Amino acid sequence: MLAYIVRRLLILPFILIGVTFLVFFMMQFLDPVQRLAAYIKSPEELKNLSSEDIERLIKRYGLDRPLWVQYLEWVKKIVHLDLGWSEVAHQPVKDAILSRFPATLELALFAVFPVIWVGIWLGVISAVHRDRLLDQVIRVFAIIGWSLPSFVFGIFILFILYGVLGLFPPGRLSLWAQAVVSSQEFKSYTGLLVIDGILNGRFDVALDALRHLVGPIITLSYLWWAFILRITRSSMLEALNKEYITTARAKGVPERLVIHRHAKRNALIPVVTVAGMMVLGLLGGVVITETIFDYPGIGRLAATASQQLDYPLILGITLFYGFLLVVGNLIVDVLYAIIDPRVRLE
User: Fold this and answer.
1) What residues pair up with 91 in beta bridges, in sequence order?
2) DSSP 8-state symbol, 44
């Protein structure tokens, strides 16, 4: 296991370099003013620029130097988390991303467990009751969920939960709760409002934060349930047809143990990869869902940056998600090796 992890860690820096090179290559398609926005720290430097000012700033920031020199200088800025200024967020790109990430992290934490556990549970039930009524019902449930566009289902959930019932509003907090969180008496320990509300003894704030999470969680859960359910069902059906399952049943092993101890463990191997990618997608920001529910996370920030052509912020979020994806893939590989020991020998 240790050798497997070491091999993956040795590959990691080369993948990260590839990500930075790709983002740097994308920057070369921008015009000089847009490229300058990724280098400066103050927005005042880009206002009312003449052609002479642009030339002066290009020389100042070394954008007229060879590309490999520009790349090395840009990587040094990344190492120091200097990603330029965001006009959309009215703050440095680094601060904009870090200020929105706790909201996305909170949404991901509350969504990931029901998505994974319910999806696996339904997939196992569907496989065990293959071609029966229960299996047919679950498969129809999965097909509908996988076929529905996320924006359609999200708007439907928002209409029912808030428009009709008036119970679960969009946003992250109500106005009164936001005033409490912004006050000096309320201390931010984690940036996760539910946890911080509990730690501050403000259970009303924690409950209000949970109310605002219900709509996005239901939307994400149903759409991902369908996908994980289908993967689990297919993998489970394949595992149930293996010879070791037939042998276990012939030995008189109880059916419950055959399913959960023998078949389910092997069936979870492809599910781990899918679940890992799902978690990375949630952490990277779910653009459509966060936009529909006016949820101030990374996804909504990325959508706003794209609409207003905030190139430094777009590149910063791209770089952030690229690093997240690379590190997340490493974690998925390790989990894969834990579940399937044969991977360690490959």
Assistant:
1) 86
2) G
79 burial (CB, 10 Å; 0-12 / 13-18 / 19+) is: exposed
In single-letter form, the type of residue at position 304 comes to: T
CA–CA distances in Å: residue 224 to residues 202, 241, 271, 315: 32, 26, 12, 27
76 CB-contact burial (10 Å; exposed 0-12 / middle 13-18 / buried 19+):
exposed
Cβ–Cβ under 8 Å, residues 337 and 6: no
The two counts, helices (H) then strands (E), for the chain are 16, 2
Delimit the domains of the chain by residue range: 2-91, 100-171+213-339
Phi, psi of 85 (to 5 degrees): -110, 140
* Average pLDDT for 28-40: 65
Give the span between the Cα atoms of 86 and 93, in whole angstroms: 5
51-67 confidence digits (pLDDT tens): 676 677 777 766 777 77
Please give the angle made by the CA atoms of 183, 189 and 194, to the nearest 5 degrees. 80
Grade residue 92 by pLDDT with cuts at 50, 70 and 90: confident
Give residue for tokens 């065990």. 128
Tell me the chain's radius of gyration from C-alpha atoms: 24
List of residues 6+ apart from 240 with CB closer than 8 A: 127, 128, 259, 263
325-334 pLDDT, tens digit per residue, is 888 777 777 7
| Both structure tokens of 163 | 């428009």
- Which tokens hold the place of 196? 């911080």
pTM to 2 decimal places: 0.79
Residue 104 and residue 320: Cα distance in Å, rounded?
13
Q: What is the mean pLDDT of the chain?
A: 80
**Which residue, chain included where needed, has tokens 């370099």?**
17
Q: Is the pLDDT of residue 70 over 90?
A: no
Buried b (16+ CB within 10 A) or exposed e, 15-25: beeebbeebbe
Tell me: pLDDT of 207 over 70: yes
Q: Which CATH class is domain 100-171+213-339?
A: mainly alpha
Report residue 92: phi and psi, to 5°. -55, 150
